[in-house]
Design goal:
The chain is 47% helix and 14% strand. The chain is an alpha/beta fold and 400 residues long. Strand 5 and strand 6 form a beta hairpin. 46% of the residues are buried. The structure holds 4'-deoxy-4'-aminopyridoxal-5'-phosphate (PMP). 4'-deoxy-4'-aminopyridoxal-5'-phosphate binds next to helix 5. The site of 4'-deoxy-4'-aminopyridoxal-5'-phosphate (PMP) has 13 residues, from helix 5. It is an enzyme of class 2 (transferase). Homodimer.
Length: 400
């Protein structure tokens, strides 16, 4: 008898499991709208030209493959956090931002939540409803209790700001509250700048701890600076935020696993203590982060011409998605699809939260070979000129 005879099969991942089903489907019309990975106009994965240029530069430099320090490549840590916080950000200038390179956004979330579990008095974290499914699992593994605050209003397919404020005000003083910095996943609905300001005020009054997840900087508006508004505003207002930053989407570096975890501290001395504790979490988890992705980001952000090119490419990706929203909306209306579809246009970022019901999602897969998560979320970038009509027609049929 095998040692593992009693291991039970676990459920497939709610998002990555969809790709498996998609791959197994042999119909040529099949469409995968499950995973949030950008696709070009032909439905193919996209390597940003600025990244290819950085690859060439690095190749010529014939660098070694030695280990990085536990907290990663110093030039990367600096440039990456300047992109998020702004070059003039006080915590950076005053050398009181504790930064570590992370295994993309997920790795930052995991180490960040472990840090909270170990060093923050409160052991729970408030997550928006709905949120990226992995947030719950990460919180649990890190030893935190996941609590909820209301965020989305299915009736308006928009933000339920009143309910959000009510829940945040009702949370015990000093609660840790996770905020999607921009392009909320899965809803594509963000607070306005005025609403962020109000939230900052409530956080102050309640002494809440803002735990930011920024996986889509640049994808909301096409401009990374604009998308960093919430993060920068909270820091300006004196909040000691924690930030998880990912370069998976905005640089297309999904598989390179590159991001940062950063915490605003009060002084260089405090920063050094926080750094030392982060090292104690990273060392037994994966020792030190991978070098290649960090070198790519560092190369692009340090060379003004390459950075300029990259900013153009981010805008192009965001604009293509915005154009697709317009097309999809027009098509659905043209087909007289029952329901109100304005949210397809008004939502932002990589996803649209369509409002399709789980049974309709199942029908799309079974009858039409179209794959998306059962909450009705579609990754807009999976659509293109070749499949958008077929998609709209299929949606129209399952809704009618
Ligand atoms: N946070 C959110 C809200 C996300 O949508 C994602 C990616 N789907 C991540 C974090 C982490 O992604 P990664 O680990 O690839 O950076």
């Amino acid at each position: 008898v095998s040692v593992w005879a009693n291991v039970k099969a676990g459920p497939p991942d709610a998002i990555l499991g969809i790709t498996e089903k998609f791959k197994a489907d042999t119909d040529p019309k099949k469409i995968n709208l499950g995973v949030g990975a950008y696709r070009d106009g032909n439905g193919k994965p996209y390597v940003l030209p600025s990244v290819s240029k950085a690859e060439e530069i690095l190749f010529k430099e014939k660098l070694d493959k030695e280990y990085l320090p536990i907290t990663g490549l110093a030039s990367f840590d600096k440039l990456a956090t300047e992109l998020a916080y702004g070059e003039d950000s006080a915590p950076i200038k005053e050398n009181r931002l504790a930064v570590t390179q992370s295994l993309s956004g997920t790795g930052a979330l995991r180490i960040g939540m472990e840090f909270i579990a170990e060093h923050y008095p409160n052991k729970s974290i408030y997550l928006p409803t709905p949120t990226w499914g992995n947030h719950n699992a990460i919180a649990k593994r890190a030893g935190l209790t996941a609590e909820k605050y209301r965020y989305f209003d299915p009736a308006t397919v928009g933000l339920n700001f009143e309910a959000l404020k009510e829940d945040i005000k009702a949370a015990p003083e000093g609660s840790v509250i996770l905020l999607h910095a921009c392009a909320h996943n899965p809803t594509g609905v963000d607070p306005t700048q005025e609403q962020w300001k109000e939230l900052s005020q409530i956080f102050k009054e309640k002494k809440h701890f803002p735990f930011f997840d920024m996986a889509y900087q640049g994808f909301a508006s096409g401009d990374p600076v604009r998308d960093a508004f919430a993060v920068r505003y909270f820091v300006e207002q004196g909040h000691q935020i924690l930030l998880c930053q990912s370069f998976a989407k905005n640089l297309g570096l999904y598989g390179e696993r590159v991001g940062t975890l950063s915490l605003v501290t009060a002084s260089p001395e405090e920063k050094a203590r926080v750094d030392s504790q982060i090292k104690l979490l990273v060392r037994p988890a994966y020792s030190n982060p991978p070098v290649h992705g960090a070198r790519l980001v560092s190369t692009i952000l340090s060379k003004p011409e390459l950075k300029e090119q990259w900013l153009g490419e981010v805008k192009e990706m965001a604009d293509r998605i915005i154009a697709l929203r317009e097309k999809l909306y027009n098509k659905l209306v043209e087909l007289k699809t029952p329901g109100e579809w304005g949210h397809v246009k008004s939502q932002i970022g990589m996803f649209s939260f369509t409002g399709l019901k789980p049974e309709q999602v199942d029908q799309l897969a079974e009858k039409y070979h179209i794959y998306l998560t059962r909450d009705g979320r579609i990754s807009m970038a999976g659509l293109n000129d070749n499949n958008i009509e077929y998609f709209a027609e299929s949606v129209s049929k399952v809704v009618k």
